[in-house]
């Protein structure tokens, strides 16, 4: 049987130890191509580079870096660099957890989103511990990759995986909710100019059964299936009543004669 082609990317950059650990572990599963940003691009979300050229440096036989964002790397990898469509995209291993609402900022998760948008099963992996390095997460990444390649994945769905230190099991979870209690830090720089720093302070989470955050606290691997359709279907029903009123108002406005 032919070995599957796997595209590996990240948002911590081409030199990040998590990327290396993941690529090494996945070598046992398939033919690994690395296409990653040339520097750290954490928290850039799903940004794409459309207004300047992207340059690619080939650093090894199947190792490339790009002067762009994580989503650029996956897009370019699949559509431009790899000799064939990969069977799987794996992003990570991110240095630090990607839980709950934070996934909307995450370059790691966005790299997997890009793979999903291009119709390829995709997984994002992050370590949720400081002390354990990337070994456990890399091991789990290889196990999960093997499983996904054999079983497939639900359509339009990506897996967001967070691995704690010494995991004792695996739980399928939902995204937790951040509680925002931190303040914006406002200070003055050495030249007397005011500056602000957002996102300071520790992350606080709503305790909730079945959340990714709860799984990590219990010391088990969290696997959250994410859907790219952001439509709130319940709200669609609730807002149906708006259609008539908003429609009537927009018609009235259009009927008004143009001012001289
Ligand atoms: Mn990162």
Indicate the radius of gyration in whole angstroms: 21 Å
Task: Let me know the average pLDDT.
Answer: 93
Head-to-tail CA distance between termini: 75 Å
Count every helix, treating DSSP H or I runs of 4 or more residues as helices.
7
CATH topology-level name:
Stationary-phase Survival Protein Sure Homolog, Chain: A
Biggest sheet overview: 9 strands, mixed
The distinct bound ligands, ions and cofactors come out as: manganese (II) ion
What is the CATH H-level superfamily? Survival protein SurE-like phosphatase/nucleotidase
Order of helices and strands: EHEEEHEHEHEEEEEEHEHH
In total, the number of strands is 13
Structural class: alpha/beta
CATH architecture: 3-Layer(aba) Sandwich
Task: Give unreliable regions as ranges.
Answer: none
Shape: globular
- As for the number of domains, it is 1
Give the CATH class.
Alpha Beta
Write a structural description.
It contains seven helices and 13 strands. With 260 residues, the chain is an alpha/beta fold. It has one domain (5-177, 206-232): 3-Layer(aba) Sandwich (Stationary-phase Survival Protein Sure Homolog, Chain: A), CATH 3.40.1210. The strands form three sheets. The protein has a nine-stranded mixed β-sheet with strand order 3-4-2-1-5-6-7-13-8, with helices on both faces. A two-stranded antiparallel sheet has the order 9-12. The protein has a two-stranded antiparallel ribbon with strand order 10-11. Helix 1 crosses helix 4 (135-151) and helix 2 (70-81) runs parallel beside helix 3. The N and C termini lie far apart (75 Å). The mean pLDDT is 93. It binds manganese (II) ion. Manganese (II) ion binds next to strand 5 and helix 3.
